[in-house]
Amino acid sequence: MFGSADLSIPNAHSIIKYHLNHKRTVSLRKSVQALKPMNQLGNKDSSRVRLIGLPFLWLILVVFFSGFGFSSAGDDPYVWQEVEKIVAVGDIHGDYKNFVAILENTGLVDKDLHWTGGKIHLVQMGDVIDRGPQAKQCYDLLMRLQEEAEDAGGKVHMLLGNHEEINLTGIAFGQPGYVPFEQFYAFLSDKYRERYEKDIRKEYKKRGVENDGELDKAIRDLWEEIYNEPVKAASVYFQSINKTYGKWLLDQNVAIKINGIVFAHGGISERFSKWKLSDINKLAKRELRDFRDAQLYMKKPTIANPQIVYAPEGPFWFRGYALWEEETYQGDVDKILKNLEAEYMVVAHTPSKETIISKFGGRVWLIDTGISEYYGGNLSALVIEKGKFHPKEFTDEE
To answer: Which residue range forms the structural domain that includes residue 326?
Structure first.
């Protein structure tokens, strides 16, 4: 029923250990070399991502957090009521063409890709990036549609998924097949393009070459060489994507509730169902920012024991709703939704080989159908209107 995508969590244990026990953050060389699939770890490590903490630092953090608290004042909005229509879209994984086809078929954009959804709320469930080649185009479109929808009285929510997590924290490049060349090339910052392309552009100018295609090919060949040098490429890629898109990504939510329906990439497990959604969003973004800044600015993270980043039961990685048997876990699901003061939950993350799936008496909806061609190109959206759930399937020709 379900695909095997990303069924193991990257081994962040070694990276975090280096972060906490060295004066400067672990280099990307060590980060890349430290990554292993989860199934290569021992039993104790594979059951959870175990983190090495520093007692003194932990004491400081306890004092800090107990004084700071998780006040809702100043939080980003995460709950909406009385929304007439919601359109939820699962993992895109860099497939711009298929994403656009879904937006057009649900009436959210016109032929020029401008917002026509009025007061509709679009919820993109995370994992826009990796696997497919056009994540940057997808992000750019989402950023523009957020502004246009807001002006029209609607909303575009882009939730953070586990692939946003690992790109923000700097370990995506170390995972085989996650960052294709086209994604790497698209996210290159002007700073790095200028630095690495300077000599070759100077050479072609000196030769008086007027064939732009020839110069473009030479530049692409240069970047393909760099792409095949994992340490250098990982550093260039991480710096580029975080300097240009990191701030915007960290402004996005991890979990939201609309009309009593909770939306989260992997879903909310029982442990986190006891938290307020505001606390989940706030702490997740604080942890992501801490690990991102540690890599960007070559310093140690300040959070010694992250609770959400890389957590198997956290909202980025949890797969319970896809894998649990309904007869066994119906009571658990009812309890989780009661804790969240919600009637339903919509999740993505685990691609099905079929269609949008409803489980647990219609209270949980699994909407990752493998939209990207990487997973088969099964275009879908979940339309929720007047309390009714309507799974929609499309072809990219419709």
So the answer is: 79-179+232-394
Q: What is the SS3 assignment for 253?
A: coil
> How many Å is the maximal CA-CA distance in the chain?
73
Q: Are 254 and 281 contacting, i.e. CB atoms less than 8 angstroms apart?
A: yes
The domain total for the chain is 1
Instruction: Return the structure tokens found at 248.
Output: 């915007």
* Residues 83 and 258 sit within 8 Å (Cβ to Cβ): yes
Where do runs of H (alpha helix) occur along the chain? 13-21, 28-34, 43-47, 55-68, 96-105, 135-152, 162-168, 181-186, 190-206, 212-227, 230-250, 270-273, 277-296, 320-323, 326-339
CATH number at residue 293: 3.60.21.10
DSSP H helical segments within 87-189, as ranges? Answer: 96-105, 135-152, 162-168, 181-186
Q: Would you say 89 and 124 are in contact if contact means Cβ atoms under 8 Å apart?
A: yes
% of the chain beyond a pLDDT of 90:
73
User: What pLDDT score was predicted for residue 205?
Assistant: 85
pTM given for the model: 0.84
Question: What are the backbone dihedrals phi and psi of residue 355, each rounded to the nearest 5 degrees, phi first?
Answer: -130, -170
Q: Mutual orientation of helices 230-250 and 212-227 as an angle, nearest 10°?
A: 100
pLDDT (average), residues 244-252: 96
pLDDT in tens, 218-247: 999 999 999 999 999 999 999 999 989 999
> Is residue 65 in some structural domain?
no
